[in-house]
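Hi everyone,

Forwarding the result from last night's run.
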Amino acid sequence: MRRREGLEFAVGGGLLLGPLMFALTLPQPSAAPASCDAELPIQAAPTPETIVVEVCERAPEPAPQPQPAPEPAQAPTDELSAFLFVTANGLVLSTEAAPEWGAGRLYEPKGDATYRVAKRAAPTEVPAALWAQRGRSFDLYNRDGKVCSARIGELHVVSQYDGWSLDGVMGDDIWERYEDPADIPRRLWRPALWARAGHWLVADIESDESCEGALWARDAALPAPVILTPMTRETAEGKAQLAAFERSAVLQETRADYQRWYDELSAEGREYEQSWGSIAARYPAKVTSWVDAAARVRLVELDFGADLGGCGDGYPARITKLERVAGDSFEDTEQSPDVDAIFDADLDGEYEYLYVNSGGWSSMTLTSDGEGLDRYLEIDRDFVCPC
């Protein structure tokens, strides 16, 4: 009985102490902080390495200023707008443009010259008075009067050279590499041509009508100019000038000088020259009357004979007169013959005389009886001896 009770006591104690003994054999967990807010130990931070950086202080760049807008075009009153040349390039605003007035790439503009190059006009470089001409209206004229009305379009800075070669542009050494001017690449002659002097500021002519044949232009805001038109039919003033010419000392002297020269020629030399009688019959005196809008004759132009003394041979036997009608007499204008147009552009009471391609050059000349308008333009070119 006691043995049974002892056994039951041992078994019961094992049952009670077994779980405890098993728990003691498990790994012990690390101690958790008493609170989430507990401070962790602070470790000392390592001493940072000193790095020296050199700083170059620069003054702040000024903010770019906006380019001033072109001044609004006002009704012009200066002589520039009273007369402008018209060429195959367009309407010539200036014959003294600077290369700096152009910007961008080079290209070939309109025109008749053999070699042409241009850049678009830069609004910040072109003088404001010229840039303001954009969009203005102009009246264009030829020998007989108004041809059309037009607007000024895009502006170009143009450089050009006329002739068969590029001697005046590239220099003689270019022929060491090229025999034909047509073989010279544009990448060579275009920059060389642009680097030469003689740039023009030219405007495109925009019109709803044909402006073909126009020689000059005038701002449409100005009063209409006085235009003289040529008339070849007989007038009283023309007959009077012709009669005065037949009695003139210059005719008598020219006839005597020519006859003296002709008489001194050998028989063989006379075969190649004309007698005075032959000249008078072949080139008789012709009179052109220049009349205003009321058909009043203002100027008379006389042309007699021919220039036969070119290249050192022959004898000059041409007489010309361009005279102003002054009542019953005539006054010499001291202007050259073969005038292409006569007008009073600035309305100062003095006439202007326009000559186109005079002397065989690509040129235009405007002269005046007064001190108002005098203009000249020329496209540089190869010199070709006429002989």
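Residues 140 and 217 are 4 Å apart (CA to CA).

Cheers,
N.
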